[in-house]
Request: fold
Amino acid sequence: MKAGYKHNATQLLKAWCSSMQAIKHNWTLEEIASIYDLPLMELVFQAATVHRHYFDPRKVQVSQLVSIKTGGCPEDCHYCPQAARYATATKRHGLLSYDEVMGMAEAAKAKGASRLCLGAAWREVKDNAQFDTVVEMVAGINKIGLEVCCTLGMLNENQARRLKEAGLYAYNHNVDSSKEFYKNIISTRKYEDRLATLANVRKAELSVCSGGIIGMGESKEDRIGMLLTLTSLNPHPESVPINTLVPVPGTPLGDRQTTSLWEWLRMIATTRIVLPRSVVRLSAGRLERSEAEQALLFLAGANSIFSGEKLLTTPNPDFASDQGMFERLGLQACQPFEYCHVAAPRPS
Ligand code: SAM
Ligand code: DTB
Ligand code: SF4
Reply:
């Protein structure tokens, strides 16, 4: 840690928290680094304080993922078991039917999810019959009273508007890492393409879900750089998933070590402070964490999870174990469309 960081970060936070005009889009790398580098317990305390200013800290938003089209993707994302070019054990399947997905939506609702997130191993959305079916799925899921999110790859403004009109709540498209590190992980599309898709989602007045992955070999500066990109978006993404890499055999990152709890905790707490009104999601990587470890992550400001025995293709804690954890920690799952913020009015 550089001398002076602790002092600067504490002063910065004090001034900022006392004014609580805290939605900043002009963070600098140095400012975010001064927060990231705080002594860990001080960082967690500051993040918990910010969390309580913006959110009811007992509430956690629970989503379930459904992989509606698995594997065979033409992209080269080094982390992804669904890229066709890597020999992984992932079983490919084409687009699920409307009825199959509606059955999964009903089951997720019965188990207590407030949001269903439909993922497709596509590079981009194409205007074809498959997209028409996805639009119907969105309308059907919205009708049964669940929030619907899609993560279908790149899309244009018109496609985003079609999803919005069908009742889509949010669109997930991650920046994944810093602009500088991104090219080490993906060569088949550019960082700017990601940002263009996020702009199209925003233009369609959809809620934006965008975050990234840690544990891919990136530096501390890259993690901070990713947060700089996310904070520069105006408005900030409503939802920010912070995944830890799930190393899948056969992918170029398949033999990387599991990310340490302390790194995830530091990243979650920093995210909470610099994106104070955003829902911060503990995404991939929860299966390896004990309840005590997850309690620390919630304390540091995480307030959303994916629940259910599978993420898209890899294992994840099931609803029953998460429900038990919530009871033991005194947490409550948000209802669909429930607004869990406090103190600040809902932005128009
Ligand atoms: N094909 C679409 C796309 O790339 O936008 C949607 C699905 S893609 C699997 C969604 C996100 O999942 C990726 O951007 C990445 O952040 C995350 N992800 C994929 N594989 C992962 C892994 N092995 N570990 C952690 N996160 C992963
Ligand atoms: C996100 O940030 N993480 C989720 C969701 N958004 C789409 C996906 C995690 C995928 C982990 C690897 C897998 O299960 O295939
Ligand atoms: Fe394809 Fe998405 Fe996987 Fe990249 S992350 S290989 S685009 S499914």
The chain is about 40% helix and 15% strand. The chain has one domain: 3-333. Residues 1-5, 344-348 have pLDDT under 50 and may be disordered. The two ends are 40 Å apart (CA to CA).
